[in-house]
Amino acid sequence: MIADRHTPLSEIDFGAGAVLAIDKPANITSFGVVHRIRRWTGCRKVGHAGTLDPMATGLLLVCSGPATKRVSELMDLEKEYEGTVELGVTTDTDDAQGKVTGRKDVPAFSRENILSILQEFQGVIDQIPPMYSAIKVNGSRLYRLARRGKVVPREPRKVTVHEITLLDWNSPRLSVRVRCSKGTYIRALARDIGERCGTGGTLKTLRRTRLGPHRADDAYTLDTLREWLVVQHDERIPIDR
Predict the structure, then answer these.
(1) 53 has catalytic annotation
(2) For residue 135, pLDDT beyond 90
(3) Which domain holds residue 32?
């Protein structure tokens, strides 16, 4: 069972093993969520099933105790995201948190133009991972190389975009919903859509709305979890560490 906001927190035994649906806020790493839950619950064995970038919000499945054995299984679940791509801007991280590396004017694309381009990214596609990612090349994490100013060749990886839906087009920004397999970088998808448009592009916002049948709208917030634990332990638990 995966506990969400419909599950009374009193029924959750972190030490015995639990999987919680957490709605990750922006500007915190996925490990930051894990670190907080470790501190608040006293459970040393806590992990998550699928990293969300710091700027991203949405569903993060957090496992504790023996339930950490389920991480690989949960990471295989189909993922759904909603995000906004800004055309005409490129960054070194492929998202809004990076350094701007280029700007171009955006032509007057029609909605039909954008729809046609998006369809090219549906199905099994080759995707080159961003330099700012945890993938290893020759034993080194790409993000560590990137922080030293190095850009190295990356082999494309096959990922599956089951469906990409245009939610809104208001130049230079387009909003999309993406259903995809594990291993898909939405930042890289934004970058590649921008390249296909001839303008460059970067990811402005991202929210993971679903993992398999589990939805972000049903997830606990960190504040809700913390407040309940404060009552249980009758003490103040800092939220900012």
Answers:
(1) yes
(2) no
(3) 9-76+213-233
